Structure to design on (1043 residues):
């Protein structure tokens, strides 16, 4: 036993680099799995910690949009309606006002200005200051404000500066994160707003009352429930009591835990995790396969020793000791390095999230369970890789085992082929092809390993390409080829004849306009419910209706839905669907179900897109009411000039060029792009390691041939070149396999994983030329550079002793 | 003028267990087109001597001239050129390329030293060693003697003037050994200088010059005492 151990110790010293290099493959594979997995766990725990740490509200009470209640009356009504169940309540005035930021105010945005009572310390939805300073009691009467970090970061704004709210310049003294506004993505009609177009501003309530021209008023109450009380119970009590304590105003009571904006934050992590898992597992599988093969080859190189031992009558159990110790070394090194790699990748990916999806509080404990799972794989793979060849070796005749690996019977399948296949060029020029064809199984394994490692890279890049192409297509379908338009949202529902509306459409800068009403609803069929954002417009007007729909002159009394929604609901053109929509009643509204026919299906990638004709407004109890306008500037008037003018009109919540909104999704994709850089680097390293190990093992086996070449005066560069060409040839085939498998994976991800993870988006496969190029280049660079590393070994080779002994 | 000339060549190997003097101030001179047999017991320094002449290894001290080149002054890349153009090895272990056929192994020799129409030359060389009918065989499909003949053909295909053979018959039976030696002898008629290393005293009888080594020292350097005999007269 100690004899075998001593021998193994010598093995290790001789093969340390090899052991580490194979271990590194296992490490990267399991590291990416553990690292990406950790990030998701960290993000969920950080969200929890952020909500808890900044005392996020439990319940939010607000009147129907556009209604205001005197601040003290609102607060008092909620307090008495909630009774003992509430611990803290704070009143706010939230106003949608157009905002301009940046130097010269050149960045238009939809402002959400949150007025907070600073007279008392803020105890609910507190701010986490990321730069500059916070607001305190001293600011209660002042005009200093705070700017949401998401918006500031999207435009690289300084920590303090000036921001123009509805035409009034105010000073922001810091940037903050606040638990209620961590989700920056909202849909509005057929558009999506994100961090770049939605500026949340926190201000003293007095300032907001002045800016919104609502002196003394509030429209929002946030409340925390006394500990031990059931939030849902308190919410129900509020819903029951509010009509008594605050008659004449319809109030909504919302529980934060059920809030779609909050849930979306968690859902996003889960769906991203699903996509990560697919890629991490694919990489792990590729790395595992490669490590298995390489361990097998290293152990097979010991078969000569195994043959001798067998000839001397050593028992198979003892024979297995040395290869298994080697495998154990790979496994232990792999797991140790894997923990490091997982930790490093986790930190790296977390860094990307911290900057792209900032959270006020980060909680990032060690994910032991995940690492344990990755470690088990890291242990099993090399042990399996060594067990297989030993098991095979003890079954063959010792004489066969004594041959060098590539000459053993059954491994010489390529020789017959070689004899028949006349290759052009000198024997040296042919060498790479010969080496590949002489051992077809081994070559195929290497090709497969490289292919499996590169496949997830192409699939990952293709996923971003597809999403990006989908967005382009979507923008194209929704807005046609028309020049940029100004989308205007009104602060309230307005009769289309109201002065605020006329002021917009009669502006001398406007050439064409269309009015509309945006509202939310649900499509229901069987057990499927699809949330939609309904744009009520003149469906025959190509300015606001999709071009294909406008051409059809659709009759009123129906709905236009997106292809994805139709597919998910299993309905087609002309079919009926249940529409759950708001119906205005008094000062509020309630949801009712109406069966409507599907008049058209629009090829939008966004499932939430839906259109109805303005003439169907009576269905909602909102005849002649609008809340949105689409404006086209007169020739010679820039969209920017129009935006500046319109955003100063009273009653305008925001006015944004359609083009800025279509950039929102691209911003969201920026995060994914950052993450895929991690994948590119890890996969590049893996491809290199596979190529390196494969060349190194090959070069060890061919030491005698290389020495003979050098004895005949063939220079080291020439010998290295053979290795490079061999590796690149295998690499090229491997890249081909990688591209093919990558495309299959992409189709599978977009066909099954994506729809489950991101049901709102229908993404069709599209791969940009650049993604093919990146995959090919990474594959080529890795396979071409790896063999050059054995040059040093060749330079220092002891020719006489390599040539002397018979193997 | 001597084609091989060694002056006071010493080779020391530094090992963890101490210094081994494999060759101690060895001097010798070999004229062109001679068959030289280097004789000595195992461990006496024969292979070391041969490797010095073939520039596979460099001496610790001393001067070596081969084919008019001062080998000990050549740079690393010049040494590669020297091995391509001046010397050529025939190994005890054959060291054929296992993935090349007999013909291709020989073609390799012709190609490295820059011959055009290497294929034709290779066929010619294989016929010269009487392997014209085995050109498409891979080394593992050939017997030891056949493999050694392929190795000789490969060396001859280089056209280089100095052939260095380290125990070329060591792996072979008697009859095959004689065949090989006869082949080498014949090369001297074509003007090649052949150095054969062996521990078999009988073989030295066919040499033009016998260099006897003991413990790293050249103890004699002279024609065989009984005169040069034909390979067919050897017995062991
Ligand atoms: N690379 C080496 N390192 C250490 N000692 C060596 C080395 N090569 C040869 N020797 C030693 O040099 C001596 C001569 O070796 P060698 O020339 O191979 O002898 P021969 O060929 O006559 O059997 C021997 O004692 C051998 O052990
Ligand atoms: Mg020797």
């Amino acid at each position: 036993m100690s004899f075998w151990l001593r021998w193994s110790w010598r093995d290790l010293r001789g093969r340390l680099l090899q052991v580490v290099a194979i271990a590194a493959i296992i490490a990267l594979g399991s590291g990416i799995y553990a690292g990406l997995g950790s990030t998701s766990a960290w993000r969920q725990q950080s969200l929890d910690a952020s909500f808890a740490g900044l005392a996020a509200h439990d319940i939010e009470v607000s009147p129907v949009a556009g209604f205001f209640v005197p601040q003290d009356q609102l607060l008092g009504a909620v307090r008495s309606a909630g009774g003992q169940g509430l611990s803290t309540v704070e009143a706010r005035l939230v106003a949608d006002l157009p905002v301009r930021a940046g130097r010269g105010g050149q960045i238009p945005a939809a402002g959400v200005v949150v007025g907070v009572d600073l007279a008392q310390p803020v105890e609910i939805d507190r701010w986490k200051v990321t730069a500059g300073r916070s607001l305190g009691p001293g600011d209660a009467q002042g005009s200093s404000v705070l700017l949401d970090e998401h918006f500031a970061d999207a435009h690289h704004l300084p920590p303090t500066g000036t921001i123009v709210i509805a035409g009034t310049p105010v000073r922001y003294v810091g940037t903050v994160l606040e638990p209620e506004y961590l989700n920056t993505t909202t849909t509005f009609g057929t558009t999506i707003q994100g961090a770049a177009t939605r500026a949340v501003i926190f201000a003293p309530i007095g300032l907001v009352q002045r800016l919104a021209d609502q002196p003394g008023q509030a429209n929002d109450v946030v409340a925390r429930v006394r500990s031990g009380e059931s939030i849902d119970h308190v919410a129900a009590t509020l819903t029951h009591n509010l009509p008594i304590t605050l008659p004449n105003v319809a109030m909504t009571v919302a529980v934060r835990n059920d809030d779609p904006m909050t849930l979306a934050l968690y859902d996003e992590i889960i769906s991203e995790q699903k996509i990560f898992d697919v890629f991490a597992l694919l990489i792990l599988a590729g790395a595992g396969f490669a490590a298995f093969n390489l361990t097998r080859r290293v152990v097979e190189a010991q078969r000569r020793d195994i043959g001798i031992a067998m000839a001397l009558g050593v028992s198979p159990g003892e024979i297995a000791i040395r290869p298994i110790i080697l495998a154990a070394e790979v496994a232990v090194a792999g797991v140790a390095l894997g923990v490091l790699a997982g930790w490093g990748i986790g930190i790296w990916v977390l860094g990307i999230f911290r900057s792209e999806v900032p959270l006020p509080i980060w909680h990032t404990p060690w994910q032991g369970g995940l690492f344990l799972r990755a470690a088990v794989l890291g242990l099993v793979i090399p042990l399996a890789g060594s067990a297989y060849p030993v098991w095979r070796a003890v079954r063959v005749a010792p004489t066969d085992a004594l041959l060098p690996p590539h000459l053993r019977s059954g491994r010489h399948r390529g020789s017959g082929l070689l004899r028949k296949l006349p290759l052009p060029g000198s024997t040296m020029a042919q060498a790479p092809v010969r080496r590949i064809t002489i051992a077809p199984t081994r070559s195929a394994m290497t090709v497969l390993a490289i292919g499996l490692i590169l496949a997830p890279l192409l699939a990952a890049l293709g996923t971003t390409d597809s999403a990006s192409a989908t967005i382009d297509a979507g923008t194209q379908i929704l807005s046609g080829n028309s020049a940029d338009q100004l989308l205007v949202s009104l602060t309230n529902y307005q009769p289309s004849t109201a002065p605020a509306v006329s002021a917009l459409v009669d502006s001398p800068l406007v050439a064409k306009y269309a009015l509309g009403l945006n509202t939310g609803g649900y499509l229901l069929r069987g057990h499927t419910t699809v949330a939609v954002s309904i744009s009520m417009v003149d469906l025959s007007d190509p300015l606001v209706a999709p071009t294909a729909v406008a051409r059809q002159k659709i009759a009123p009394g129906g709905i236009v839905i997106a292809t994805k929604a139709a597919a998910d609901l299993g309905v087609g053109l002309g079919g009926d669907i249940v529409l759950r929509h708001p119906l205005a009643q008094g000062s509020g509204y309630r949801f009712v179900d109406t069966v409507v026919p599907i008049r058209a299906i629009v090829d939008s990638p966004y499932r939430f897109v839906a259109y109805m004709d303005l003439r169907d407004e009576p269905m909602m109890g909102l005849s002649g009411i609008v809340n949105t306008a689409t404006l086209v500037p007169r020739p010679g008037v820039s969209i920017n000039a129009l935006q500046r003018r319109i955003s100063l009109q009273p009653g305008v919540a925001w006015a944004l060029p359609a083009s800025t909104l279509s950039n929102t999704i691209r911003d969201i994709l920026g995060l994914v792009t950052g993450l895929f850089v991690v994948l590119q680097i890890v996969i590049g390293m893996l491809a290199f390691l596979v190529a390196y190990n494969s060349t190194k093992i090959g070069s060890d086996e061919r030491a005698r041939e290389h020495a003979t070449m050098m004895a005949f005066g063939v220079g080291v560069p020439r010998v290295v070149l053979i290795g490079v060409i061999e590796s690149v040839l295998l690499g090229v085939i491997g890249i081909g396999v990688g591209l093919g498998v990558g495309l299959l994976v992409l189709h599978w991800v977009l066909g099954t994983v994506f729809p489950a993870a991101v049901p709102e988006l229908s993404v069709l496969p599209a791969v940009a030329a650049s993604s093919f190029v990146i995959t090919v280049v990474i594959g080529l660079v890795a396979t071409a550079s790896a063999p050059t590393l054995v040059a040093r070994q060749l330079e220092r080779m002891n020719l006489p002793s390599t040539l002397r002994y018979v193997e | 003028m001597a084609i091989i000339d060694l002056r006071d060549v010493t080779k020391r190997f530094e090992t963890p267990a101490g210094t081994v003097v494999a060759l101690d101030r060895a001097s010798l001179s070999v004229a062109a087109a001679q068959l030289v047999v280097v004789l000595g017991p195992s461990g006496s320094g024969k292979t070391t001597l041969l490797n010095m002449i073939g520039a596979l290894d460099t001496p610790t001290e001393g001067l070596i001239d081969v084919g008019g080149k001062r080998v000990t002054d050549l740079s690393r890349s010049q040494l590669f050129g020297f091995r391509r153009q001046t010397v050529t090895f025939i190994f005890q272990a054959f060291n054929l390329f296992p993935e090349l056929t007999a013909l291709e192994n020989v073609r390799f020799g012709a190609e490295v030293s820059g011959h055009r129409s290497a294929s034709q030359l290779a066929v010619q060389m294989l016929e010269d060693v009487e392997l014209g009918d085995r050109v498409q065989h891979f080394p593992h499909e050939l017997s030891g003697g056949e493999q050694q003949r392929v190795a000789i053909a490969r060396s001859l295909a280089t056209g280089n003037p100095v052939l260095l053979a380290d125990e070329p018959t060591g792996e072979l039976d008697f009859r095959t050994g004689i065949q090989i030696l006869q082949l080498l002898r014949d090369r001297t008629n074509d003007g090649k200088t052949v150095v054969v290393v062996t521990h078999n005293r009988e073989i030295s009888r066919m040499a033009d010059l016998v260099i006897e080594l003991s413990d790293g020292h050249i103890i004699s350097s002279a024609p065989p005492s009984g005169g040069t005999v034909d390979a067919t007269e050897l017995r062991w």
Q: What stands out?
A: Chain A has a mean pLDDT of 88.
